[in-house]
Amino acid sequence: MNTTILETIAAATKARVEKAKQEKSLETIKSEAQRLDANTGFPFEQALRSEDIAFICECKKASPSKGLIAQDFPYLKIAGEYEEAGAAAISVLTEPQWFLGSNEILQEIASAVKIPCLRKDFTVDEYMIYEAKTLGASAVLLICALLKEDTMRDYIKICDRLGLSALVEAHDEREIQSAVRAGARIIGVNNRNLHDFTVDVHNSERLRKLVPETVLFVAESGIRSAADIRVLRNARVNGVLIGETLMRAPDKRAMLCELRGGNSQ
Ligand SMILES: O=C(O)c1ccccc1NCC(=O)[C@H](O)[C@H](O)COP(=O)(O)O
Question: Which of 11, 25, 162, 235 has the most CB atoms around its CB within 10 Å?
């Protein structure tokens, strides 16, 4: 079988984590994270509960499917615009090779905004969860395709103890069932097919039915228009995660308003 982009990124991420451990050990990052306040009230989850449909707006300079998206990437300005325009949370890519993200970008954004930040990365080691906490994240991404069910359960428990939320990403029925069994309280369905990079928001619509009402549901990727949002709102998704559409919009506030179905003028 061909190696998927996800497997390639995961292998590079494992190497990145091993390098990070040489600079700061697991024990050190763990104790740094554990010294931080764990009584957070899980703001990322709260943000998803508190709105009709919550917008998680992404700061992303590049991606494997699109290459460079934003030549100019004033991420603090972008995050500020998202916050002012009523974003519920901000997703920050920290993967450096394909997404041109960094830990520093997350740390700076998290300390500049009041809304919760998701560390969007390819979590392959518990080290990355403790690291996310020290960087100021309120949530981390856990991808079913990269983690065995028992590991997923353990990682969700680590998140709970640190006061972090886990957005557990699934692509199909089997992964959704595994995420539910592992104790996920937030499941995100990624609409992007990682073999051919095509996107279909109806993937979220279809899979929403399989997720219990008690579990929060986020639709991720390929959301381009108010019509897409209408489909997802009708499917009772709690939140949408939007990257490229917002990153390419010169006026983020106007684009968010348009996506919500309003008039930006
Ligand atoms: O975006 C990609 O090309 C990609 C490829 C392989 C793994 C993950 C990938 N993207 C990460 C994301 O999940 C998106 O950044 C996020 O859902 C927003 O998607 P979009 O609104 O389509 O930019």
Answer: 162
221: left (phi over 0), alpha (psi -120 to 50) or beta: left
* Closest to 159 in 3D by CA, of 113, 199, 191, 126: 126
pLDDT cut 90: percent of the chain above it: 94
Angle at 169 between CA 148 and CA 227, to 5 degrees: 160
Residues with CB under 6 A from ligand 1: 5-6, 58, 60, 63-65, 190, 192, 194, 220-223, 241-245
Q: Is 104 a catalytic residue?
A: no
- Residue 265 has a pLDDT of 43
Q: pLDDT at residue 1 above 50?
A: no
> How far apart, in whole angstroms, are the C-alpha atoms of residue 220 and residue 155?
21
Residue nearest to atom 12 of ligand 1 (CA): 221
ipTM of the complex: 0.98
Helix (H) or strand (E) holding 58: strand 54-59
In this predicted structure, the answer to whether residue 233 has a pLDDT above a threshold of 60 is yes
Closest by CA to 162, choosing from 65, 64, 29, is 29
**Is the domain covering 5-16+42-259 a CATH 3.90.1150.10 domain?**
no
Predicted structure pTM score: 0.96
Domain ranges of the chain: 5-16+42-259
Rg (CA), the chain: 17
